[in-house]
């Protein structure tokens, strides 16, 4: 793992910083340091326009291979981009799921025709995606999926019925990738398929889930004979589990740097408040701030270690640690934010009781160790898939 930067890399850093300074201004100045976890419902239309500005600068898919329409940036250059994006206050990415998850999956498993249809719209910041994985009875236990899909009479369309839950930004998305059961009577990870489904159709209903923070970036999504073309199946019928796991491998890849970008901004806010209100003088709080800083560095170095291998969606042993590590770190940051604020953490000015960013951070991080795979499930994955220990009795 090489974590040093060459003179050419540093010149590239100056280019990125200058571009961000030029473009994150005017109407987009209001987006600075906004739209991260717990704040994802902030100004979605403006953030979509920002994605198109990024696309014109060729920063969307900048790490994708050139033959896929990307810039083919090296890992070092991608790290630099995310660092400078964070330093400039770049907002949370509306296109993250398309660029970081489904795009690489289509590039790896899709047909040439599927790549030509779907990848350019992601790179242009025109199509936004959501993830149809979790269900009320299939969260951490993803293999328990009940949503089903079957071909119509002439095999031209897949018809999908079922329910997904905790679907981030489904109400702002053009497409959803859906893991559905296409083999009647199948169980577990067998008989699942990976489908690309357009959201703008009568057979799909999106119902927001209001959270403790008052925001509704998560949704329930109901499919009632929703349809998608038979050519929108990625891979073969029954290969859905393999493709879904590869997508999770991409999620543990370069996109982790963007997540850490948001974490750094939040930690910077905590440090700023501690210096302003005197909390930094408390030796215990000062030690916790230092632990948060060092913990974020560890997350970064582990990400670089993950990125030093093949970017093919395989879940390397060090990647199995990442979800448990970041969710635990972020949970503790939320607690630290409240303790640094002191009594002010429990005050609200009055109706409509708008939360401060630190209060929203604290409330939102309560869910971090649950969504995307609970900590208990993550420990099983580490034990069984990374350490080769005996599987849990089922």
Give a quick summary of the entry.
This is Acyl-CoA dehydrogenase. The chain is α+β, with helices and mostly antiparallel strands and about 400 residues long.
Can you walk me through this structure?
It is globular, with a radius of gyration of 21 Å. The mean pLDDT is 90. 43% of the residues lie in helices and 12% in strands. It has 3 domains: 7-94, Acyl-CoA dehydrogenase/oxidase, N-terminal domain (Butyryl-Coa Dehydrogenase, subunit A, domain 1, Orthogonal Bundle), CATH 1.10.540; 129-241, Butyryl-CoA Dehydrogenase, subunit A, domain 2 (Beta Barrel), CATH 2.40.110.10; 252-386, Butyryl-CoA Dehydrogenase, subunit A, domain 3. The protein has 394 residues and is α+β, with helices and mostly antiparallel strands. It has 11 helices and 8 strands. Helix 3 (75-88) packs parallel to helix 7 (255-277), helix 4 runs antiparallel to helix 5 (112-123) and helix 4 (96-109) crosses helix 6 (240-251). The longest helix is centred in the last third of the chain and has 25 residues, at 283-307. The strands form 2 sheets. Strands 1-4-5-8 form a 4-stranded mixed β-sheet. A 4-stranded antiparallel β-sheet has the order 2-3-7-6, with no helix packed on it.
The proportion of residues forming helix, as a percent range, comes to: 40-55%
Rounded Rg = 21 Å
Structural class: alpha+beta
Pick out the low-confidence regions: none
Organism: Pseudomonas weihenstephanensis
InterPro entries: Acyl-CoA_Oxase/DH_mid-dom, Acyl-CoA_Oxase/DH_mid-dom_sf, AcylCo_DH-like_C, AcylCo_DH/oxidase_C, AcylCoA_DH/ox_N, AcylCoA_DH/ox_N_sf, AcylCoA_DH/oxidase_NM_dom_sf, Mycobact_Acyl-CoA_DH
Cofactor: FAD
Domain Acyl-CoA dehydrogenase/oxidase N-terminal: 8-125
